[in-house]
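User: Hello, can you help with two protein structures?

Assistant: Certainly.
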Amino acid sequence: MGTRKAKERSIRLIVAGRRPFFPFRRSPINRTLTGFHHPRYMKRYCRKLSLRFLLLALAAGVPQQASATDTLPWKDPSNALVVDAYELNTIDWESLLSDKRIAAFISKASDGLPETFDCSGDHGGDTVAHCRTMWRKYSVSRELFQTRRLVARAAGLLWGSYHLARPGNPIDQANHFLDYAAPKDDEMMILDIEGIDPQKFMSLEDAQIFAGHIRARTGRYPVLYTNHNTARYIAAYRNDYPVLARLPIWYARYKPEVKGVFPMGNWDNYLLWQFSSGSNCGKRRCPYRVPGTLTDIDVNVAPMDKPELAKIWAQGNLLPAREPDPPLILAKIEMMPREAPVVCVASSGPPPLAFDPVVTSSVPRREANARGYRDF
């Protein structure tokens, strides 16, 4: 114990620029010298000491990139933050811009199929009054989208927009998104899949068509935004959804960590992690409070700093393809309804869908199923 303390004291003296005292065992020949004073031992000791300090300096100077195994990555001030909002979120831009960690702003753009200008006749079962109300809401929301875009980009923030995917023609929805958002080459495009229930949200088959049409018109694929259950399902059935499984993922999960649950068999890491929303942020406790916003704002963390995020922000390419492995095959069985036994059949039809709840705050709960779009 005493020798270890003496060594630690000697290291502190060397750092301070003073000559250390080494209380090592005395030489039996010359009691004024120790065995350590032999030139060979002194050189060896100095080399080891210098190497330790060099490694410490390198570790301190190299920025560490967050990964899907990190806990509370938003606590790391070097990781960039991204705010996303829809039309009912209130924002004080002057206060929001005071947070220098915020690198980007993502806004909801289109929602399902486009509204019609004509409110006469049978408007999909809606009354004329309801039709006009929805059209006014659509017009105001689009103007708000354009205003936020001007403010955010003028302030130097990266900009992105997402389409909330609903049941209905995926080509019409893709065109609606491009007409609404008019994305520039340096802006991120996102396809928002809230669940795998095709009665409530766009089916995964249609989502692949949507992504392909966006690629055909813009030369870039969109980013996939989804929650844990849907991401896990796509990862397990990635051979059935080869496009969705290779899109960069914006991952929604409101837990302190994703270690052990993130679908890493398909995605090595998330592009963005939505860690805070109205479901886990309140007046008393919140993972991260963005100035100028209420507790219902969505906050995301990137596994990199602001300059690195700016380099890859626009995205557009598919990730490398992966082959199925045993853990994901097991995940397929777990995703099936518990009451239905697993039966081996000759046909290779689509597996039964496990309904997935809405866990994100992109859509208010009271409006999640309020708009009944007709499928074509």
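That covers the first. Now for the second protein you mentioned:
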Amino acid sequence: MKQGKNNEQILNRTIIELLATEKTCSFKISYFHFMKYTFFLFLLICFESILLSAPAQAPQNLPAGKLFIIGGGNRSPQLMKKMLATAALGPKDYVVVLPMSASEPDTSFYYFKEDFQPVCNAPVANLNFTSDKVNDKNWLDSVKHARLIFITGGDQERFMAVVLNTPVYHAIHAAFNNGSTIAGTSAGAAVMCEKMITGKELTDTIYNATFKKIHANNIHIAKGLGLLNNAVIDQHFIVRSRYNRLLSAMASLPSYACIGIDEATAIIVEGNRITVTGESQVVLMQKPRGLQITPSGLIKMKSLQLSIYTTGDVFFINLH
């Protein structure tokens, strides 16, 4: 109603201006010209109304599920409650834990239950897939229909060695596409991405918690679960000062959003919207300018976009 009233006022004002112009300039406007101007104005108003009423285009073909990605470290009751709120567990829902990253899967499951049970009494299943279990129909159905899937810490390559190119991989994606929340911590955070940081340096056989140099062709990136595209995740980020590692990833994947999540902190991914929660910070590096590699292999760039977020902050990334 308000839009129609405004359009009527515009039309009336235009008529008055046309008549005033005729009187001032002693120029007689023919009925033909008057109708031409009025019709033209009518078309403009209609076109404007169509644009204003058109719905915003939502992203297409995005999974219905969410990601809850923890940077490792302590899982406080507040963080666990936030994860449960994200998953929106119903009275008949259950949780599946995938502990294949861990060197001691049962121990990882035990500590998850220690954090989980004080805040939720939903059933929790420990599904430690091995090569002889990846085709188990009952286990796969349990993964597909779990409302919350949690991937423990450990070694991300160990996890992907079990899951990649198996029905387990597809069961996780089926759950995600159907609205389940996929959560993970530490190594379980790294595996979320299509391009997964393994932690290895290609020019140094000795493992370091952080890289000591920013060199080209040094970071090892492998295939992850592919639940989050066009972004890479690093974890324990501030505690272990992994800036060199993430800068190396940026040089290899300059179009990607490079996200460093600190301990006791998580990001909640819903489509291209990311919300920060927890005790510490999340660092976002992206859009390097003037990226070059020197003849000796050193990485250099003129600038990059660096953001630091804390709990409650929201940012967006490009998914394609």
